[in-house]
Design goal:
289 residues, RibuloseP-bd_barrel, binds orotidine-5'-monophosphate, eight-stranded parallel barrel
């Protein structure tokens, strides 16, 4: 893919040693911790502070849109300003919206979050393919034509998801493994053999991926599969263990931490972001040395 593809932009982040995806999750207790109101203005302030701390340090930020949606139109206006700050800072944004629907409706979600010029334009979005991988087709045009990215839930960090995501399909593969392989197949068709793909998956760092039929020892695929990995920090996984957890499928890893970075207020935020960014960079560098 060209340097302007989402995968190309991710590759540039990785080449600069940046693998952290800093979460923007304005939970009510965190806003209180920051001395901010549990309202749109508080969420905006937290978001803009995270963007400022993450610029040039993290590979991306991931606003969890639910925490803005709580405040209705005011929350969306706040989020738009956070997105504008991130764009201006040259920081990649993964909009954590986890959208899924029949193809025609999903296309409208994809337009909302990925279309160039949309008020909520991000660089990538999270998506749910419970209606089938092809239901995400509305996003594929933005991936191919506008340099956008997509992260499809495969094996999520929450323990209650296991039953659904480990379930076997007619072809014997687990649902989670099929998501991984569908994303790899999309990338292979879009940009055979080169760099980093633009369609990735979400794999929880809290999991034993072998349990989902996902072989972390397999040789790296080309293009590399972007993996958005939540579950570090507050949910218990240690970022220092990232290379062991993800093995051969962790070549294009974005390690997410949200609450563990946000807790403690605005004072010290820049140090916490830098600390987590350094920790994931050294964990991956050590494993590749
Ligand atoms: O897609 C996600 O980002 C996601 C998938 C998943 O499997 N688990 C998961 O925790 N997330 C999100 O990642 C973030 C994790 O936040 P912390 O547990 O505070 O680091 C939240 O915004 C979750 O919504």
């Amino acid at each position: 893919m060209s340097a302007r593809s989402f995968g190309g932009r991710l590759a540039a982040e990785f080449a600069a040693g940046r693998h952290l995806c800093a979460g923007i999750d304005p939970h009510a207790p965190l806003l209180a911790d920051w001395g901010l109101g549990d309202d749109a203005a508080g969420a905006e302030r937290m978001g803009r502070e995270v963007v400022a701390a993450a610029a040039g340090v993290a590979a991306c930020v991931k606003p969890q849109v639910a925490f803005f949606e709580r405040f209705g139109s005011a929350g969306y206006a706040a989020l738009e300003r956070v997105l504008a700050d991130a764009r201006e800072a040259g920081l990649l944004v993964v909009a954590d919206v986890k959208r899924g629907d029949i193809g025609s409706s999903f296309g409208a979600y994809a337009d909302a979050w990925l279309a160039p010029g949309s008020p909520l334009e991000a660089d990538a979005m999270t998506a749910v393919a419970y209606q089938g991988f092809e239901s995400l087709v509305g996003a594929f045009a933005h991936v191919r034509d506008h340099g956008k990215g997509l992260f499809v839930l495969a094996a999520t960090s929450n323990p209650e998801a296991r039953e659904v995501q480990r379930a076997a399909r007619d072809d014997g593969r687990s649902v989670a493994r099929a998501m991984v392989e569908d994303a790899e197949a999309f990338n292979a068709e879009a940009a055979a053999g080169s760099g980093v793909g633009s369609v990735g998956v979400v794999l929880g760092a809290t999991l034993d991926l072998a349990d989902f039929g996902i072989d972390v020892a397999k040789p790296a695929v080309r293009p590399a599969l972007p993996v958005l990995a939540p579950g570090f920090g507050h949910q218990g996984a240690r970022i220092e263990q990232a290379a062991q957890i993800f093995g051969g499928i962790g070549h294009a890893l974005l390690a997410n931490e949200s609450r563990s970075i946000l807790a403690g207020g605005a004072v010290g935020l820049a140090d916490r972001v830098r600390g987590r960014a350094d920790a994931i960079a050294s964990a991956l560098a050590a494993s590749r040395a």
